[in-house]
Specification:
three-stranded mixed beta sheet; 125 residues; 5 helices; two-stranded antiparallel sheet; elongated; 14% strand; 5 strands
């Protein structure tokens, strides 16, 4: 989830949190998921963080590739990449960053494991 989603989960106003985060009066965990340039929090980290509680050790950040990056790797358009995903010809996203897990209309940024960590399945259709 995004920082905005994390704020909603714990009941803190996003803009208030941003002010407090940068004035060092509230510890906020660093993101542990990165999809391209977007950063977010895993469900695990979002459940561990309680505002005002002492810092905890979070897992290291894991990098994923976004749809545009996956399409560029295959030299196809993003639309073609999504068509392959929806047809089941390539794996569905491994993770997503969304502003609000409880909002079915929320936009999700999807991420896939980099190809070097995926088992080889041959060429794309």
């Amino acid at each position: 989830m995004s920082l905005r989603g994390l704020c909603r989960r714990v009941g803190i106003d996003y803009y208030s949190l941003c002010q407090r985060k940068y004035t060092k009066t509230l510890w906020v965990p660093g993101s542990d998921i990165r999809i391209g340039k977007r950063q977010g929090f895993s469900k695990h980290v979002s459940q561990l963080w309680i505002p005002g509680e002492p810092p905890f050790e979070r897992p290291p950040t894991v990098d994923y590739l976004g749809a545009q990056q996956m399409a560029r790797l295959r030299d196809i358009s993003a639309a073609r990449w999504w068509a392959l995903v929806h047809a089941g010809d390539v794996d569905r996203p491994a993770v997503g960053i969304v502003d609000d897990l409880d909002d079915p209309e929320a936009t999700e940024i999807s991420g896939w494991e980099p190809p070097s960590t995926q088992p080889s399945t041959g060429s794309l259709p």
